[in-house]
């Protein structure tokens, strides 16, 4: 397993593989590798002959009052964990991705506008810009993203389509703890008491889906879920909505594909999750 840091090396390795007829799959991450990331990497190994895992904590997707400084950076352990769990061909940990003169950004509209786009207006600009840069550094055949960040996946798909980027985007379902909490690097910010509360997010999402499937009015089911969450000790709820998965419009008539999307605060930690009504 090679660790590369320079764009020129990464481009050369990717092109050499492709020149000898091998396909390449990229798994972009911010590191602090957990079972969610590992599931994406395993899927990548089944998808292409060569797998690149990028590890980069992207400053431009964090707001000034967000957790960029405290975000867990664990590259040595990450390499060991990836190697122990089946490995990949290259871990790409780019240096100098943005220089002082950087002045061009991708500003996604469309599916980027609601939810995270409202709560964190800088976020998808940072994500789209860094992912497009990574796609230039690793001109892969495939890239895999998690449904845990469902709107991000849609923003990347929209960008790839709109900018004619020649990479197939694949989605992987959310990996959860046994108690339902979606795995996330930010779960480690939770105190033991908050960690015990956190599975209620998924439980409330599931309850909401069940109520709506059984004919309860959408707004009634959602108000009930928000109320219950706030009564049990959650902080601000940025959103708890039922939306269509393709255009993220609010649902008035649910289908099996409609999804509940949640972003809320538990102490100073912001958690997001989503699931389909099914
Ligand atoms: P991150 O390192 O949090 O930026 O995530 C890197 C990639 O892993 C993104 O495509 C995420 O959607 C995906 N991911 C993170 N957590 C999970 C999870 N619990 N299940 C599936 N994919 C995940």
Describe the overall structure.
This protein is α/β, with parallel strands linked by helices. The chain folds into two domains: 2-172, HUPs (Rossmann fold); 185-276, Pantoate-beta-alanine ligase, C-terminal domain (Pantoate--beta-alanine Ligase, Chain: A,domain 2, 2-Layer Sandwich), CATH 3.30.1300.10. 37% of the residues lie in helices and 18% in strands. It is built from nine helices and nine strands. It has helices at residues 7-19, 35-47, 75-84, 116-119, 123-137, 150-162, 192-197, 200-213, 218-232, and strands spanning 2-4, 24-29, 50-55, 90-92, 142-146, 168-172, 237-243, 259-266, 269-276. The radius of gyration is 19 Å and the shape is globular. The mean pLDDT is 97. Residues 29-30, 36-37, 39-40, 145-146, 148-149, 172, 174-175, 182-185 line the site of adenosine monophosphate.
Secondary structure layout plus pairing:
Blueprint: E1 2-4, H1 7-19, E2 24-29, H2 35-47, E3 50-55, H3 75-84, E4 90-92, H4 116-119, H5 123-137, E5 142-146, H6 150-162, E6 168-172, H7 192-197, H8 200-213, H9 218-232, E7 237-243, E8 259-266, E9 269-276
Parallel strand pairs: 1-4, 2-3, 2-5, 3-4, 5-6
Antiparallel strand pairs: 7-8, 8-9
**Cα-atom Rg, whole angstroms?**
19 Å
Order of helices and strands: EHEHEHEHHEHEHHHEEE
Portion of residues in beta strands equals 15-25%
Secondary-structure-derived class: alpha/beta
Which hetero ligands occur in this complex? adenosine monophosphate
Total number of domains: 2
**Lateral strand order in the biggest sheet:** 1-4-3-2-5-6
Instruction: Calculate the terminal CA-CA distance, rounded to whole Å.
Output: 39 Å
Architecture (CATH level 2) name of the largest domain: 3-Layer(aba) Sandwich
Give the beta-strand count.
9
CATH superfamily of the largest domain: HUPs
- Tally of alpha and pi helices: 9
